[in-house]
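[Backbone geometry]
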Amino acid sequence: MNTIFNFINQFFAFLAPITDAVWDFPTNIAWYKHIPILGQFSFPVLLLMGVGIYFTIRTRFIQRHSFAPAIKIMLARQPSKQGVSAIGSFMLGLAMRAGPGNIVGITGAISIGGPGALFWMWVAAFFGMASAFTESVLAQLFKEKKGDEFVGGLPFYGKRLLGNNHFVGFFLSCVFITYALFNIPAQTFNVFSAIGAIAQATTGHHYSHQSTLYYTIAVILVIACAFIIFGGIRRVVAYSDVLVPIKAVIFIGISIIIILINFPLIPYFFREVIVGAFAPHAIFGGAIGTALAQGVKRGLMSNEAGQGTITMAAAIANNRHPCEQGLVQSFGVFFDTMVICTMTGFIVIMAHVWTGSVDGMMWESVRASKITLYLTSVHTLVPSSVATIIEIIMCACYGLFAFTTLLGMISFAEISANFISKKYSFILIIRILGSLVFVPFGILTILAGLELGNLWYISDLMNIVMVYLNIPLLLLGLPFVLKALADYRKNKGVSFDSEQYGFMTECWNEKKDVK
C-alpha cells in the first residue's frame, strides 16, 4: 500500500515547481521583485484585487447595499418550491467559504506578514464583495431548471457569454470538477487532524494512525459523507443549514469570550493592526509589501470572491430578482472575512506569541505549524484551568469547518456536472467519485501515515486556474450584471425580465424555451 501511495506522491512531484511558478509570477523575476511594494504582489493577487476595485466602481459601491437587504432577503419566504431558499444558498456558500483556512490561513498570514496583514485582508474583502456580487448575479441570470431544482454557475454562464459554445461550458465543468475532487483529500486530512487533536487533548494520549480511533473515524466519515451526498443537493443544504450556524456560532462565541477575558488588550490589537499595516515589525520582514501581499492574498483566497467556486451555490437559489443572490453572496464575503477570520486575527494578535522571539530561528520554529500556533495563542489567552476545554471546542470547530467544506466541494462538483449531463446515472458517478473514492483515498493516505504533500499541489494549481478562467468571464458578463442592477434599483427588486434588456435567459423572461 505504501508503495502505491509513494508512487502517486512522486507522480505529482512535477507539479510543485509549476504551481509555485504560476502562483508567484512575476515575483520570481528579479527586476520585478525589486520594485518597491508592487514587487511583493503576484499577478493572481493583482488580478483579483484589481477587478474587485473595478467592479466596485462600476456597481457604484454595491457593498453599501449588502447588509440590511441581504438579511431581509434571507429571512423572506421562498417564492416557490423550485430550487432552494436564499438562506439555504447562503449557508451552502458559507460551508465552502468558512473552512480551515479561516483558522490556519489567517494565522499563517499574520505569522508571515505581521498583524498589519489583517488590515489588508479587510481591504481585500471589501473589494471582493463586488466581485462576489458580479459572479453571483451572472450565476442567477443564466441558471437552468432541472425538475424542481435549479443548476448553474461558472460553466453555464461561461457558455452563454462565449457565444453559446457548448464546448466552453463542457471544458469549464470538467476543470471545476477536477478542482473540487482534488481538494477533498486535504479536507479529509483536516477532519482527522481535528478529531485526533480532540482525542489527544481529552485523554492525554497520542494516537497512532493505525489505532482503532483512526479506523473508527474513517468508517464514520465515509458513511456520513455518503449518506448526505447521496441524498442530493436538498439534503446537503438541509445539513449545511444546521452545521454551518453551529460551527459559526460556537467559534465566534468562544472567540468573543476569549477577547472579553483579555479586554485590556483590545487597544493593543487595533494599534498593532493599523500600525503594522504600514510599518511592520522587523521580525516579520519589516516591509509594508509583505504585510500587504499576505493580507490581500489570504483575504481573497479565504472568501473565494472572483474564483467562480461560490457560483454553484448562488445558482441553485430561488430569488425574486437575480440581484438578490448577488447581495446575499456579497454579504457572505463580509461575514466570512470581517467576522469569522477577524476572530482568528484577534486571538493570534492579542496573544502575540512572537514577543520574546529575539531571533528569526526561534520564531520560524514557532510558526512552522499554523494550527499549533493558533492553539498556542488560545492557551496564552485563557486561564489554564479551562485551556484544555477551549482547545477541544476550537478543534471541534476546525473539524466542522473541514467537514462542511468537504461536503461543499462534492456538492459543487455535482452542480457543475449538470452542464455535462443532467441524467441521474451521470450525477451518481460524481457522488460516488466524491464520497466513495476521493474521501476514502484521503483516508487511506492518513492511515498509511502519508500526507502526500505533492498531491496537494494539484489543488493549488487548479485554484489559480479557476481564477484565470473566471475573471475574463466576469468582465465579459459585467454589462448583463449592470443591466440587472439598474433594474433592481429602479423597480426595488420586484421582478426582472431579461428580454426587456435585450437578452434571453431560461429563468428570467417570459419565453422559457431558451437553450
